[in-house]
Specification:
By secondary structure, the chain is mainly α. Helix content is 72%, strand content 2%. It has a two-stranded antiparallel ribbon with strand order 1-2. Helix 3 packs antiparallel against helix 13. The two termini are 25 Å apart.
Length: 454
Amino acid sequence: MPSTSPQRAAAAATSAAPWTAAAGAASAAGAPMRGAAVEDDRIVAAALPGPYPPPDGPRKLSTVVSFSISSIAPAMAVIFTNPFDTAKVRLQLQGERLKQAAKAGGATQPGAVVYRNSFDCMLKTFRMEGVAGLQKGLSPAILREGSKNLFRLGMYDPVINAMHPKSVYGASPPPPWKLMAAGAICGAMGALACNPFELVKTRLQSSAHGSLAVGHQHGYTGVWMGLRTIVSQEGVNGLYRGSAMSVGRSIVGSGANLSAFHMLKDYLMDPTGPAWDDGVKTDMVAGMASGLASVICMNPIDVLRTRYYNQPYVNGRGTIYASGWDAARTVVGNEGWGALYKGFSSHFLRIGPHFCLTFVFLGVLRRAITDLQDTRTMTSTFSAFDRDGDGVLNVAEVARAVRFAMPSEPAPVVQAITERLMQGSSAVSATAFAGMTEELRAEVRAHAAAAASE
């Protein structure tokens, strides 16, 4: 064992001096001092906001906060992606115009083909109708995203936890089929919640001027007019027109989207793999990829639903399609199987960035809230240990923090850990307390591992 130099011995004596002085004072005071210390411990325990040090892993958000950000994040994202949705709806309705033109004249009439592709649709819409044309249906789109994802995203973790409880399966991750099932269940709930807004949004987005018009024109001027018109003409049941197709679309789309995002993010953050941080880049890549998986799976149902939603209704019955199945037979029969992937590029140009932004905003909101809560918790914890209220933790106060973190350790171990945490200083400031807590958490893990190996 190497000998200790005089300088290192002096430094060790200096760092130990505050602890020795505090211990000596406590010993001299005797039983009254010990009784006061016990009372102080009770006061500190009552003032602590939770266990110390806080448990490892991300903080769990409250149910209210979790549901709120699940609704807010996609509502923010749709502001940026709604123009692509408008283009998608108009492209999907264009085939219906071609069919009607052929029936009327026996051949495709001039002007039946209005839009060549997604970008042509957006360019023509912008030229004729301006930014307002690109953002048609934005109000119901925001309401739709908020109401849908209150369940689609908000219920995902609770459903996963119910299907794969940690008390039964421990730390093992849920299998893909459970992730897909949970996503499908949450997607179905979200589809039912948002169907009235989805219906109005589709009809508003199909509305266009003159030669740009495709599909039936309902003449709605806003979301509330649309809702009132549907109820007055078709009854309350009219608000849930096509809800079966919406539920089917969301079962397929959300099952693919949420499971793909979950698995890809877990892979990207795997310490033995890419080992990315839980940050914007991870959310962006996983969100965009999950959007592609979702579009591939649900575009056929999306085409049929758009046609079914937008057709005119007489006495509550559609004049073109009698049901979702009838829409499928008619579209495939008149336009071929390829018609089921009409608007695919527009669909992905909306869904890909939309899910990318949704999960980025969701992650940013979640991390910002948890960071704020962690800061408040750390401030409250520091104040609880700072019994003399001088804004720093002295040796005795740090030792108390160590005892709270490691109550079963003997006094010599507590003293040694306290000295390491103090790092030769006489006090720990509020700004250094978070770092000290991380070091203490590492000490707790190391001692637990050593005890388990014995």
